[in-house]
Amino acid sequence: MNKEKFNHSIDNIDIPLEKLVAREKAAMLQAKKRRKIGRTTRNSLLIACGLCMTLLGSGFVSTGMAAALSNIPLIGPIYAQFSDIASDKIQEDQLTTEIEKQDSQNGLTMTVKEAVYDGGRLIVTVEYTGQKKLSLSEETVGINYITINGQSVKPAIGSTGQDAIDSKTIIEHHQFTLSNPNEYGDKIEVAVHGENLFGYKGKWNVAFPLEKVDGAIHEFYPKVKTKITDKDYAITADKVIFSPLSTRIDLTIDYPAAMDENDTWPWFDFEVVDDKARVFDRLKLQAGMAGDYGHHMVLVLPPMDELPHSLTIKPAEINKDGKREDMKELELVIPFNKK
């Protein structure tokens, strides 16, 4: 199948966008409220909030998509269907590295198809094929995870999602925004681990080296701040990084210390607007936190070839009915001195 026909098959897939976004927001609020049950569990809950988990775990791969996937050697274009934040850039610049390494055990083959890493984000695509039917039921999915340099990944934002291509083939998408950019360096060792997957007993492991993708990285440290006195809230823009796989904004959120103690700290719903009035929200913005509670928040937008003159951060609170209530006093303009 040629690229034109493949893209046409993607365009014909109907995704219930409103329900998708509503589910993501509900999951994020649920994760926030469960913060007290521990750091490891908190990270897992945030991973489950990612857009890819919401999308991939919902059975959106159509017959046309399955046919397309079965006829292309690499699956980079599938990121558009999965709504990855960098899908357009990945396709246009062919950023992914072909891996094609596999491990076969007891009738199931795990194949890492491709991956891409820019120091701040890591994306890995995996395919599973079985001699018999594969099941996505909760009782049989099993356990899988990714390590970098032998360490479990603790992301600010992440997701793992799976969907069936046919009865014997499952595609899996992992994406991570790392808590600390460049903490692993330019060359990393990635491993995909699996245990008792999709009704098959056994352990699988595929390890491979991966280098940082070529591309310009621009870092800014604006240190601009806004605050609202009646609630004792403040937001500071600490760092903005433009990289091949994302536009990352690190924010410090200040609020009364008592809100940490009684677990009522605010998780704002963010919208970002650039100087050309382009709005980044919904599927064009991901949010997570890199530290305890909600003090260090990370926003991720799609990568930008042309750096904007400014970005405006627009926070809102979500009321008990799940609706946005804009907080105009906390809007923050981040200017960029491109020199």
From TrEMBL:
Pfam families: DUF4179, DUF5643. Keywords: Membrane, Transmembrane, Transmembrane helix. The chain crosses the membrane at residues 44-69. Residues 222-330 form the DUF5643 domain. Coiled coil: none annotated. The keyword Protein biosynthesis does not apply. Residues 43-127 form the DUF4179 domain. It comes from the Bacteria. This is DUF4179 domain-containing protein. It comes from Cytobacillus praedii. The lineage of its organism: Bacteria, Bacillati, Bacillota, Bacilli, Bacillales.
